[in-house]
Design goal:
It is built from 14 helices and 5 strands. The protein is mainly alpha-helical and 260 residues long. The strands form 2 sheets. It has a 3-stranded antiparallel sheet with strand order 1-3-2. The protein has a two-stranded antiparallel ribbon with strand order 4-5. Helix 5 (81-90) packs antiparallel against helix 11 and helix 6 (97-108) packs parallel to helix 11.
Length: 260
């Protein structure tokens, strides 16, 4: 993994996390992309949030904070491959939107990405508490957060996993299965591809595992995406060829060659 190359694609690896004060903000993202469905640049999003107040925030300070948090989570930059590709699938399959947002957040919020481990290891139908997430974060980064902040971060992370469909319930949360689609699985494969994974191993990355489906189901959804012309997928047995001609530019292909 080459973090420098991945950063060019839009991934982030720093310690900053929006989850000290917010969740994945899926409601705000949906409203914003209804207002600006075909952005030419990030400035259009900032104008829509801060000047036009398309998200209905009460103060200029709140509008500015919302803008900054959404940029942290999603970049909102159509020139960055990570967001541009999320938007490509977002506009093609409505049912995929929550998982597309989740995958993008995982790629840009390092602490939230780390919480994948505990969510994936929690069996379906098991009760999952805020305390468990607090202990996981504290073990991961001892002493980083005060007791009050740790509680808030754990609560926000659990709320994000609830919004994505991996947890249900308000006070007592229960592990549930997400609902993957051709678009969300395609985006998960795309992210793995950017990491340099190829062939059958693309169906074993954490991006695919968090779709909560078997490899066979993921392959079936990938075939459907290929039939729709979104990606190119060919396979005979365990020999697979996956390509993203609509999603990777010549310059980006060079970055991938450099990484490999």
């Amino acid at each position: 993994m080459n973090e420098g190359i991945l950063t060019k694609f839009g991934f982030k690896f720093g310690k900053n996390t929006v989850h000290t004060s917010r969740t994945i903000m899926i409601e705000e993202l949906k409203l914003l992309l209804e207002e600006v469905p075909s952005p030419k640049n990030i400035k259009q999003f900032i104008k829509a949030i801060e000047e036009d107040n398309c998200l209905g925030k009460r103060s200029a300070k709140n509008r500015n904070l919302t803008s900054r948090h959404l940029i942290e989570l999603y970049s909102l930059d159509p020139d960055l491959p990570l967001f541009r590709t999320m938007l490509y699938f977002w506009n093609r399959e409505k049912d995929a939107r929550v998982l597309l947002a989740l995958l993008c957040t995982i790629s840009r919020d390092n602490l939230f990405r780390s919480s994948l481990k505990i969510i994936l290891s929690t069996p379906e139908s098991k009760i999952f508490t805020r305390k468990e997430m607090e202990e996981f974060i504290e073990d991961l980064e001892p002493g980083r957060f005060s007791k009050a902040t740790l509680k808030s971060v754990a609560q926000n992370i659990n709320s994000s996993w609830t919004k994505s469909g991996h947890l249900t319930g308000r006070v007592k949360k229960i592990r549930t299965e997400a609902k993957p689609t051709p678009a969300s699985v395609s985006y998960a494969l795309y992210l793995g591809y950017l990491y340099g994974v190829r062939g059958l191993e693309l169906f074993d990355t954490d991006f695919i595992k968090i779709m909560d489906c078997s490899r066979e189901k993921a392959i079936e959804l990938t075939e459907r995406a290929s039939q729709r012309g979104w990606i190119v997928f060919k396979h005979i047995g365990n020999v697979m060829e996956l390509a993203f001609p609509n999603l990777i530019t010549k310059e980006e292909a060079e970055w991938l060659r450099e990484q490999n």
